[in-house]
Structures are given as structure tokens and as C-alpha cells.
């Protein structure tokens, strides 16, 4: 089987100074991509900034014989996002791949969570992914080609105590991914999302020590590498990934229950049918979902 190469391709990886992003940047560079290593260099909660982490990863890539430039811009501001994409254009003349990976945590139980804690997390994950993709989109359209990988989370797909802000953001990224897939289709732009589980500074306090050698960031980067590659035709999908396992996660609609002029009591009495999962549909657009619902209604 032929190796997946990225020669001539330019990738932007956000939050690439640590953890998953660092691993994605190294993996893409090793396979020939020129990489913009973006990282604000702050703490886990998004406070502070440092040029160190992005510079260190660039140094490592260069030492390994690859090509990379550092960016310490903030993904959460329009100027920052534009500057990140501009770094790719200035250094390498193009942009083909955006890996939206930058993220922060401000965990707090729902009743105690402040508006600032909610907004700060949405700003980096959702706004940041929107802004960086938005800055790259005109280049993708112009060249009729582009790959976007967004970073969701099982916490968003399934919910998690203490993460109202983070889960809202991570499920928001599923919506963004699906709509980007639809709007990018005609221009050859594919967008997918991953929901990883890996040992990084974000999770090391939560996981048992034996996870460190099993849940490595490199085991996430294999999927990201494939999703970022020209040969990947899949778009609008979400994948659970970690410790060597990869699985499609899909949004499905059950067969449903129908009765003209039903009452609230009818709903109560038919709850089992309403909750049924089989046979389910996995629509890929609102149009597909709506036409299936219409068919069931009339
Ligand atoms: N580790 C896991 O198990 C796990 C699970 C689900 C999702 N994720 C997601 O994966 C992504 C990477 O997380 P990680 O585990 O590698 O954590 P990490 O803290 O090691 O990496 C996140 C990086 O993003 C950078 N960053 C934060 N805000 C930024 C901003 N505004 N602009 C630019 N860079 C910024 C940080 O400096 C950091 O280097 C995050 O989006 C996270 O939510 C991780």
C-alpha cells in the first residue's frame, strides 16, 4: 500500500505547542507537509502566553528535516485567526489543511459556572475553529481543495459533569463540521471532526497512570493524518478515537411514532415507540432529515 504523503501541501495546526496538536504537527511534517505550528502558549485555562511551545515544536520539526514556522496568535480573535493563515501564505505560499485543535478548560459545576467561564471556553473552541477555517476558506475555494479537521470531544457528544461550557463548545463543533462539509462540497473541501481520548496535560490529572503509555497523542494523529489527506473522500463525519481504536459516531433519528391529533396522554402512552432506536436513519443534511420526516408524516 502506498504511503500517505503531504509533499507540496501546507497545514495549519492550532494549539500545536503541546499534546495532540504537537503530535499532529510532527506527524504531518514527517510525511512532507509544511506546517504552521500555532500556539498561544498559555496555561490550561487559557491564561497567559508564551512563545516557547510553538518555537520548540518548530525546532524539533526542523531538526528532523521538515519545514515549519511558528505562530503565537490567538485563534479566538479575527485578527489572530487571519494572522495564522497569513503565516502559511507568507512562509509557504498556500494553505491546504486546517487542524482546529487549540483548546482550554474552565471546568465548574453548572450552578457555579460564571458567564466568563462559559464564554472563554466557547471563544477558543467554537469561535477559534470558525475563525481559522473562515480565514482559510477563500484559499480552499480558489484552489478547489481543502481539508478541515475539527476537535470535538466525547464530553460534548455525550455530556460530562462540570463541563457545561466545554460540552456546549464540543457539540457546537459537530454542527460546524457538518455545515462546513455541506458548504465546502462543491469546492472539494472536506470537513470532519474527531472526539479523542488521550493522555495530555489536559487529562493527566483525571486518568490513571497506566493510561499514559496506551492513550498516546500519536494514536490520535494517525486518524487526523488520514482525514487531512487528499485521498480521504469522507466528509461531515465524527470519529471517536483513542488507544488504537477508531469508531464512527453518528447522529441518528429513530423510526418515530405517529398519530394524527394526538394528545399529551397519547405521547405518554406511546413513549416506548417514540424512544425506539431501530431502524434508525443517519441523515447527512437537514434536507435529508426533513424529507424522511415528511415521508413518515404523509
Ligand atoms: N486529551 C484528551 O483526551 C482530549 C479529549 C477530547 C478533546 N480534546 C481536545 O483536544 C484538543 C487538544 O487538547 P490537548 O489534550 O492536547 O491539550 P493541551 O492543553 O496539551 O493542548 C491545547 C493547546 O492549545 C493551545 N491554546 C489554547 N488556547 C489557544 C488559543 N486561543 N490560541 C492558540 N492556541 C491555544 C494551548 O496553549 C495548548 O498548547 C483540545 O481542543 C481539547 O479540548 C482532548
UniProtKB/TrEMBL annotation:
**Domain Ketoreductase residues, every copy:** 9-205
Q: What InterPro entries does UniProt report for this protein, alphabetically? A: KR_dom, NAD(P)-bd_dom_sf, Peroxisomal_Beta-Oxidation, Sc_DH/Rdtase_CS, SDR_fam
Q: Which residues form the signal peptide?
A: none
State the Gene3D superfamilies in the record.
NAD(P)-binding Rossmann-like Domain
What is a single molecular function from GO for this protein? oxidoreductase activity
UniProt entry tagged with the keyword Oxidoreductase = yes
Checking SMART domains in the record gives: PKS_KR (SM00822)
Q: Could you say which protein family the record assigns here?
A: Belongs to the short-chain dehydrogenases/reductases (SDR) family.
Which protein is depicted? Short-chain dehydrogenase
Amino acid at each position: 500500500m502506498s504511503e500517505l504523503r503531504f509533499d507540496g501541501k501546507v497545514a495549519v495546526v492550532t494549539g500545536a505547542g503541546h499534546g495532540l496538536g504537537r503530535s499532529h504537527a510532527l506527524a504531518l511534517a514527517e510525511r512532507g507537509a509544511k506546517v504552521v505550528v500555532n500556539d498561544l502558549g498559555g496555561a490550561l485555562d487559557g491564561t497567559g502566553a508564551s512563545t516557547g511551545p510553538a518555537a520548540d515544536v518548530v525546532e524539533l520539526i526542523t531538526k528532523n528535516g521538515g519545514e515549519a514556522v511558528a505562530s503565537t496568535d490567538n485563534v479566538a480573535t479575527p485578527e489572530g485567526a487571519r494572522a495564522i493563515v497569513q503565516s502559511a501564505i507568507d512562509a509557504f505560499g498556500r494553505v491546504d489543511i486546517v487542524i482546529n485543535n487549540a483548546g482550554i478548560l474552565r471546568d465548574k459545576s453548572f450552578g457555579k459556572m460564571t458567564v466568563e467561564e462559559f464564554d472563554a471556553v466557547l471563544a477558543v473552541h467554537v469561535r477559534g475553529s470558525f475563525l481559522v477555517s473562515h480565514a482559510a476558506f477563500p484559499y480552499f475555494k480558489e484552489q478547489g481543495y481543502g481539508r478541515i479537521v475539527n476537535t470535538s470531544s466525547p464530553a460534548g457528544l455525550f455530556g460530562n459533569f462540570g463541563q457545561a461550557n466545554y460540552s456546549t463548545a464540543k457539540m457546537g463543533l459537530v454542527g460546524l463540521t457538518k455545515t462546513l462539509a455541506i458548504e465546502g462540497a462543491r469546492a472539494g473541501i472536506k470537513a470532519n471532526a474527531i472526539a479523542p481520548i488521550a493522555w495530555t496535560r489536559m487529562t493527566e490529572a483525571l486518568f490513571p497512570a497506566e493510561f499514559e503509555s496506551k492513550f498516546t497523542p500519536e494514536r490520535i494523529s494517525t486518524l487526523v493524518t488520514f482525514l487531512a489527506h487528499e485521498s480521504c473522500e469522507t466528509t461531515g463525519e465524527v470519529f471517536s478515537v483513542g488507544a488504537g481504536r477508531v469508531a464512527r459516531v453518528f447522529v441518528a433519528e429513530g423510526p418515530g411514532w405517529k398519530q394524527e391529533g394526538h394528545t399529551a396522554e397519547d405521547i405518554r402512552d406511546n413513549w416506548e415507540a417514540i424512544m425506539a432506536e431501530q431502524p434508525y436513519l443517519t441523515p447527512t443534511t437537514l434536507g435529508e432529515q426533513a424529507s424522511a420526516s415528511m415521508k413518515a408524516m404523509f
